[in-house]
Amino acid sequence: QQQVKQSPQSLIVQKGGIPIINCAYENTAFDYFPWYQQFPGKGPALLIAIRPDVSEKKEGRFTISFNKSAKQFSLHIMDSQPGDSATYFCAASINTDKLIFGTGTRLQVFP
Amino acid sequence: DADVTQTPRNRITKTGKRIMLECSQTKGHDRMYWYRQDPGLGLRLIYYSFDVKDINKGEISDGYSVSRQAQAKFSLSLESAIPNQTALYFCATSAGWEETQYFGPGTRLLVL
Known about the structure:
heterodimer; A: mainly beta; five-stranded antiparallel beta sheet; 11 strands; about 0% helix; B: mainly beta; four-stranded antiparallel beta sheet; about 60% strand
């Protein structure tokens, strides 16, 4: 049973575009929602994270939008660059306990 | 030097063989995790340990076992490997007071 559903599975955009990756969850006890970025041949690394007491968080060109009532959160990448090409995973956890990951989105940004 | 290291980085083995994947960390973290990554399935938790004497099963622990030899070392064993265990395996660490998990570079395992 997939507790965190992620879409789309893959995404292709041109440089400067704004890719959006969506995640939905069922367990209302989740209180921490991170996004991890993984480059080929590397392990995932934390990109940005949010807690449900805020609806949006920005770090540089990366923004998380959080909708608690809909149990959804999304990652927006402003002014995307070829260097942003990677696989992105959303995740959720309770009290910083074990993370439940989404299935991943492979993003390709073309020049 | 990398904070989280995994050995071997690549391994080919045969069905029925016992294999051990090792993870070491120099971050001083008390929590360690083992995940497997499969295309289209994301990262799934196999086992996790919050300190040396604490071992917990994750969502896909069948066919795997672990050993926490020290705070810095966490090993994953496949007692009798099967082709279905062909995957990319990641070790991760975190501090108890911090949400961020730090991942190693991964071990690519092929079971023939």
